[in-house]
Structure formats: structure tokens, C-alpha cells
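Form 7-S
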Amino acid sequence: MKTASFISCCAVLLFSGCIQTIAVRSVGGIVEDGFEALTEEQDLQLAAQAIPGNLKLLEVMLKNDLENTKLLKLVSEGYASYALGFVEDEDPERARLFYLRARDYGLRIVRQNSQLSKAFDGSLDDWKAALSRASKDDVPGIFWTAFAWGSYINISLTDIDAIAALPKVEAMMDFVASVDSTYYYAGAHLFLGTLYGSRPKILGGDPELSRDHFETALRITEGKFLMTHVYYAKSYAAQTLNEALFEELLSTVQKTSLDVLPSFRLGNAIAKKKADLLLSKKEDYF
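Output:
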């Protein structure tokens, strides 16, 4: 009798867990739609107040569906984007924590591919070889992991351990650029343009390659993704001391309507804020 009661109890618990997982997956589409509604928002203050609560909701949902790639992608993208748009310029140390959190959520997607998971813990050559065998389905996890990780490194340039991971991150973005160059508004080209444009040649910088990546990103997005202009100015234009290009790029951001890309008003509003900040600090660059 006791055995039967125990089995019944286990069955109830298992059934309850299944119901929770089904519920989480059922509302996943709604959550994704809600995330899209946030990216369409143009009021920065409203978005800054709304995003943290939504991110915690996603994390709660993940507790009941640990391997849900849709939720993992959203929370990785969310923390990385929040850090970039609302934290990095004011509180870099706090932004580092969010970038690492975003990276780790992205890695949970990447590690669902057994070959990538094994290679990730190996050498750089192992990692590049595994990436060469990856597919377009692997792009979202790889992109957001690399974006968050690279952003962390970008504001941790005094940390030798952080910089040591850069070749692995660069390989990830090379993969995205070659397999799906249009993914997230040509985000891989923007990233690589910034990477090669923000460092002097002696430290691995390549101005011409940087410009090529930025121009490719602008062509793919028809210049509507304004963050490309911002990082084109901040890296390539500043590093090559091209003040005219610096001003032209940031002026374009300031003059462009947020409605040029309705699905990304929030990101473009953040780009405008960053453009204003860069112009106010122009003397630091030239």
C-alpha cells in the first residue's frame, strides 16, 4: 500500500513537472512577442524600467525548462543588450556582470551541440575545426555568446585573462559572418569591424579590414541600424584620426528618424544617446 502511495506521489510530481514545462513552452511565443514589443519602444526611460523585470521573468521560466533554446536566446540577448544600452556607459563594473551572465546563457545553447561543447574546452584549433562543421542552426547561440563575451572583453582591457579569450570569440564571429552575414542586422560584421578598428596595427588592428566589415554591415542594413554608424565612428574613424568621418557618421545618427527601422526603435534610440555622448567627448579622440 505504501509502495502504491509512493508511486502515485511520484507520478503526480512528474505530471506536475510536465505541466509546468508545457506551460512554459506554451507561453514562449507570447514572451517572444513581448520582447519584440520592447525593441520597438523608443522611450529609453520606459524601456530601462521594463527590461529588468522581463529578464527575471525569463529566468524564472528557465527554471522549469532548463534547455529551452528560445528562452535561453532571449535572456542572453536581453542581458547583453541591457548592459550595452543602459549600464555600460555609467557603470562598467556592473555591465561586466551582466555580460558574463549573458555569455553563460548563450553558452548553454552552444553546449547543446555535443561537438561544439567538447571543442569549446579544447584548443583554439579544436574550436575552429568544430565551428567549421557547425550549421546555420547554431548561429543564434554562437552569436549571442560571442557578442556578450566580446563586449565583456571590450570593457576589461586591463584583464589579461579576459583578453586571452579574444581569439576564440573572434572565431565565433567569423563563423557567423560566413554562415549568416545578415543575422541580427549584420551584427557579426559590426563586431568584427569594431574589433579590427579599435586597436592599433601593432596590436592586431587592421583599419582596411575594419572599414570593409562596417561598409558590409551598412550595405546589408541599408544604413538603418544606427549602432553601426556609432561603432564605425568610435573605432575606425577615431583610430585613423578621421575627424570628418567621425562627425559625419554621428551626425547621420542624430538626424535619422527612429521610424527608419520600426522593429528596432529602442536600439536606434540608444544609438542616438551614444552618438551624443561620443560627440561630447570628441576632444578625447582627436
